[in-house]
Amino acid sequence: MPKTEPNPSIEITVAEAAALIGVDRKTVLRQIAAGELIPTRKLPGRTGSYLLARSDVQRLAAERVS
What we know:
alpha+beta, three-stranded antiparallel beta sheet, 3 helices
């Protein structure tokens, strides 16, 4: 059975990404839908959370500041 636990040093949840960027969770979900953020994977289940690469989110946060 594959490991489904997020690796906090590499992957973060949508809620964590929203806090890091300084936006609402729904904004991050819209960015995923628009292709601005690409999730590394989705946790199992119908409502499983998307996991995002911490480095991608940090890059996006830095772009928002510039």
